[in-house]
Amino acid sequence: MTEHCGRNRRAAPEERTMKIGIIGAGNIGGNLTRRFTALGHQVVVANSRGPQTLTELAAETGATAVPVTEVAKGAELVVVTIPLKAVPGLPEGVFAGAADGLVVVDTGNYYPQRDGRIAGIEDDGLTESRWTEGHLGHPVVKAFNSTYAQDFLERPRPAGDPDRMALPVAGDDAAAKQTVRALIEEIGFDTVDAGGLDDSWRQQPGTPAYGLRAGVPEVTKALAEASPERPADFRG
After folding, report:
1. Which of 19, 136, 145, 227 is deepest in the core (most CB within 10 A)?
2. What is the DSSP letter of 8?
3. Of 137, 122, 78, the residue nearest 102 (C-alpha)
4. What gap in Å lies between CA 21 and CA 207, rounded to an integer?
5. pLDDT tens-digit profile of 106-151?
6. What distance in Å separates the CA atoms of residue 79 and residue 72, rounded to the nearest whole number?
């Protein structure tokens, strides 16, 4: 049975709650806000249009809407889930005031038709998240990019369920990556370690793992079968 998101469910005593910031309130950001608040995490959310545009999401979930400049204050983890073309426009010092050991998650995918041609990705060969990391000035973990936003609400399953999906996670910091993997598992999905950030091309658009709704063995196989050649549909 599909697990539904509900704001009244709170974390079990053994689960550690976190303060989580989310930059971007589109499909992914909105649905992650719903899932994290349902588990009792303290969530603050921001977008480019201002907190006054997030009143409905805040009322629905119990999250707090804030300006982008305040989203990281006290946060242990910040999810950046905006179009790649918008990343360079984030305020300088956007992570100021975050908790020590802040983990930053990048959900971004490069779509040239939307983002315009990005030379650092296409000419210099940077992975999408390595390019984003350079603009953010903070290490990132690549996650939540390879499946559909609605899956975060409709496809959570308990551990051990044969229909439980797996999501790939890539990053250079082992501790940060483990924090993200634990959070993903908490919201109802298995995870696969996809390697370092320079390996994150294996979960980018156009690869076998991208959009794959499957378990650990299938996702692991898809990551291994990926080609570093960027498909023509995803080149500018």
Report:
1. 145
2. T
3. 78
4. 29
5. 999 999 999 999 999 999 999 999 999 999 999 999 999 999 999 9
6. 10
Query: Distance between CA atoms of 55 and 49, rounded to whole angstroms?
Result: 12
CB 140 within 8 A of CB 81: no
**Residue 194 in tokens:** 């996809």
Q: Give pLDDT tens digits for 53-90.
A: 999 999 999 999 999 999 999 999 999 999 999 999 99
One DSSP character per residue, 69-94 reads: GGTTTT-SEEEE-S-GGGGGGSPTTT
Q: What is the DSSP string of 20-48?
A: EEEE--SHHHHHHHHHHHHTT-EEEEE-T
Contact 84, 104 (CB under 8 A): no
